[in-house]
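Colleagues,

Please find the record for the two-part complex below.
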Amino acid sequence: MTQRVFLIALAALCSAAAPAQELTLPADGFVEGWVCSGPSRDFSRDELFNHIDGGAEIFLEFGFEHLTVQRFKSGRGELAIEVYRMESPDAALGIYLTRIRTEAPLTGIRARNSGDRLQVTAVKGNYLLLANNFAGSEQLLPVMADLASAVLDQIPESPPTKLFDLLPGEGLIAGSRCMFRGPYGLQRIFTLGDGDILLQKGKTFGVAAEYAETDSTKFTRIIVSYPDSASASQAYQHLLAYRDPTIRVTEEKAGEFRFKDFQGKSGIAALRGNTVNLRLRLSRIP
Amino acid sequence: MSKSGYRSMESLSQVNRREFLRLSGAVSSAAGLGLALGRPPLFSQEKQATPPVRIKTNVDDALAVPRTKHSLPGLFPGKVVQVHDPGAMVQDKPVAQVVSAMFEKGIANLTGKNFADSFPLFFEKSDVVGIKVNPVGAGLISTRLEVVDAIIAWLVAGGIRRENIIIWDRFDYMLKDAGFTKERFPGIGVEGLQTMDEAVAEGKAKDDSRWLTPDGHHVSEGNFDREVYYWADAEGPKDKPYLNQHVFNGKYSYFGKLLTKKLTKIVNVPVFKNTGNGVSIATKNLGYGAICNTNRLHRPLFFDVCTEVLAFPVIRDKLVLNIVDGLRGQYDGGPEPAAQFSYLYNTLFFATDPFALDMTCHNLLVAKRKEMNVKVNEHPRFTEYLRYAERLGLGVADPKRIMVVTV
């Protein structure tokens, strides 16, 4: 029976916010008949492209630190786990939310998760975990759950994120909340402009969600909370100055501008203390 | 997660990998991310949004070349035929007879002539025909062998010799991974424009001798035509990992000699998948698949490469047909293969006009993404390259002027 210890001291070197964490990969026989298939592989920040070329940018933007990949095999098929250590629980949750669509938790995994017979995605503490089932066999779902749990159970719970506290509850559409930490994440939601248009500087998280506007329409709310009001003001001014050319300002007053977007829908951008608040895709200005 | 290695159709706005790391390494720097995505990052009192400066390219050289009867958008500008058959895939495998029948219907509905009579509209018996496949998501979302079988059968029935049919892609190892081998297609050519040492790229091996000559040149340099190139005022890194993957690293992206010297016609057979908020279908399959040294182009030019590379006569005047393999589609996670976002679609698309085809497929994928509860950014920037192509006279992008025939 082999044990692989990984992610030992690197965390302490990489991030003061992320305490050193020792995790042990599931050993041969974690479920009867299943053994490791080849050695585990590790990827640092500058190697992540070698694993997910074309998809690494958003991981890096959220605060990726380290990835370990291990394959397992048995006569029933082949599975793999990918353990991504992020710099904080918020970073891990942020990347988790970019990867799931309609959250569908599997039973038997003691962490927030979503998945199906092909892939399970889970998040706990600073970690994002993927369990992949290459053949897609439904019968392997319990093994995927055992595999994921063998790693996840070693990770202590972290307090719930407070980032979403920024979003008002009224009208919020369940399951629509997400985060972004820069242009790659923001681009998934809306195009406000090129580059780091909200001056998040790779550090500040933004949150977004869908809201019911009327019985048949919805709008998108984005809130970015900066360390101080001066930073928020600078970001607001930057947005106003470098907004996307399709954002046509219709009204501007101190700390707020209203606009029409490329679809003729309305929007409001407002500076409120240390936050920049946006409401997008409105049918009408409230 | 997919198999690691090069992916020929990286995400929209993807920054060169080393450049991104350099920038994000100093992640507290606003200048870093601003530079990465092309806008001045610093606060400015300027109240007018200004469009980013676009880098220069040599597309005007291409546009100056007189057109031929086969030039894009081809014989049927703005026409797209969509053929669906729920029996095309059984247990996730294509049913060859059904696919063949779909192919026949697609061609006939595109041309308005019967299958056999359609052949001479596009080909002469002396043609050397290149079938450009997309092998990137091998086995999941790659071009299906059965679709290529149907194309070959039609070409051969029309009188083209098997040795004058060549299945090709940019990377030789990807063709093999996806099942495009000479054993599977006897008598048919199978050619990659270049090789790349995956083991070295992934850091599993240190021996460069399989891709680098002793005098420091990529072994595939000779496969690219120094006389026919897409020039853009942007350079990639001058390091070995980039060279392994891209053959050259200056401001020139040379077209493969296969296209410039050998092929007289091209049939483009991409797959139906997204890349970020856009699509990686007909125009990307060639825009980033027919030339080398491409990663440098993502940041400054994005999808415009798909338009401008196709404007060059070596493609513009040879690309006679586009057939999208939508037997399986992928609505999210692309361009990487992502099993959890792929689905049986049992559809083939046919067009001579790759830009009308991409616009049609883009709108279908947007609808699918909405249906599947994916966040959708419908900003026009993700289809601007198609309108750019229309302005250049290469295709039709206005949905009102695109005729979609469903079969």
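Chain A is about 20% helix and 35% strand.

Comments are welcome before we finalize the supplementary table.
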